[in-house]
Every structure is written in C-alpha cells, then in structure tokens.
Amino acid sequence: MKKILFLLIAVVCAFAACEPIHEDFSNGGNITLDELKAKTTVTVDKAASGQNGNVITCSTSAPVNAKWEIGGKEFIGNYAWKKMKLGDYTVVLTALCADGTVLSAEYPVKCQEITNPLEKYYIYGDPAKPDEAPFVAEAGNTAATRFSSTEGQHWPTISDDIYFGLKTLIFEIKETTPGDGIWGQPFGDPYMRIMNGWWSSTYKDDVELKAGELLEVEITEDMAKECAKGGDGKDLDFLIYRGTVTFGAVYYEE
Asked: pLDDT at position 125, please?
C-alpha cells in the first residue's frame, strides 16, 4: 500500500511545475469533467475592431495539476499565456486529479487580428549583424548546415534554453537550384533530412525546400535531449540530398 501511495505522489510531482490549488471535494479529491470545465476559462483578447486578437489566456481554479497544449506547445501550471499567429486553434487542457484520475478538455479558439505582434529572436541572420549573411549549402555538405560553433560553418550552437523551450525554428529559404543528388539520387529539386551531428537519429526525412518560402522546424523533446549541450550534445544538423539551397535568417517568434 505504501508503494502505491509513493508512486501516486511521484506521478503528481512529475506532472506539475507548481503546487495545485487544494479544495475539499466530497469524492476524495476527484472532480468530474463538468466541474473542471466550470472552473476553467480560455479566452482570446479583443481588437479595437471587435475581432479576436492573437493572445490566448488560459486559467483554471480546479484543484488539479494542469497541462495546456497551445499551438503544439505545452505549458505546465494552472495558468498559461501565449501569443499566436493568425488562425484557428484547439487548446487542450489535461488535468491530473489528486486521486490519479486524468481528465481532458478541448477549447476551440480563433485568432483573427494581430493585437500583440510576435517578436523575432534571431539565431542567425540578425539584420544588426552584417557578417551573418545568406549562404549557399550544397548537397552532402552537412558542416554548412550544422548548428555548431566548433564543427559547423555558418550556424552557431543552439542554446539549451532554445532546445528545452521546444522552440519552433523558422528558416528563410532564399533560393534553390536543382541538381544531382548524393548516393545516386537523380537530378531534381532540393530536399533534406533533419538529424543530429552524429547521424544516429533522424527527426524528419524528405523535407522539401522551396525558394521564397519559410521552413518551420519544431524542436521536439527527442531533439532537445540528444542535441542540447545539457543533453547528449550532438548538434542539430541538416543533410541536403541534392541541388543547392541559399539559407537566410534563422529565428523563432514569441
């Protein structure tokens, strides 16, 4: 019985980053989904035009350990706030009750007008740093597209805060040129594999690269654990299969 109790306590502690609000429920710490929803609000700010803005605010006063998923990102705690791009989203609240019961509620929201612009945080290509110019990467040259201050050619080492913050990296694809591919790949437009610097893990394959478009790469927990210096420290790396790609700035937005 003691082992079961200690296991439940460990699960609750691992789930929450802050102490939950305690409330006396007659059913011994378990609440229903309806009770959870009654104590939870998910709102979007309003623009002067009356349309929904782009800031989502979430809160719950339920006596649970709460985890929010907003636009693919997770937030632990009874309160969460995030600036979004315009679009339709579904906020998911996952709640762990004191007795171990897990509840889930979904809240569809719509962001229609920018009320709080997203800020760019540059990893490479900051306009204030003219030495960080666009560069051409050729098929097979992974040093050119490796995030390493010691083993890469252009991109710096990504900080642990960015990795473990699970940021979404945004790449400017300036130009692409078709060409022959490595390993006998036929002539064609460029595409690539997203992996780590030791080639032992592939996170995404056959990624198309199109001139004039933005490529978004979401850092996952596996990437963070394997690539961050606070993890295994293997460096995030791109392998272009064929042709050439001109990369501009690399940044994330918040």
From this structure: 97
Is 7 within the bounds of a domain? Answer: no
Domains in the chain: how many in total?
2
Q: What is the CATH number of the domain that holds 81?
A: 2.60.40.10
Predicted TM-score of the model (pTM) = 0.77
pLDDT of residue 29: 61
The residue ranges of the chain whose pLDDT is under 50 are: 1-28
What pLDDT, on a 0 to 100 scale, did the predictor assign at position 181? 82
Task: Mark out the alpha helices in the chain (DSSP H runs).
Answer: 2-15, 33-38, 160-164, 221-227
The CA distance from 33 to 106, in Å, is: 11
Dist CA 85 CA 44 (whole Å): 12
- 85: containing domain: 20-111
pLDDT for the residue numbered 188: 85
Determine the pLDDT at residue 16: 40
**Residue 127 C-beta-side C-alpha neighbours within 13 Å:** 1
**Residue 96: its pLDDT value, please?**
95
Domain-embedded: residue 89: yes
Same domain, 229 and 133: yes
Alpha carbon distance 67, 58 (integer Å)? 10
**Cα–Cα dist 112/142, whole Å:** 40
Instruction: Quickly count: other Cβ atoms within 10 Å of residue 159's Cβ.
Output: 14
Q: How crowded is residue 239: how many other Cβ atoms within 10 Å of its Cβ?
A: 20
State how far the Cα of 52 lies from the Cα of 54, in Å rounded to an integer: 7
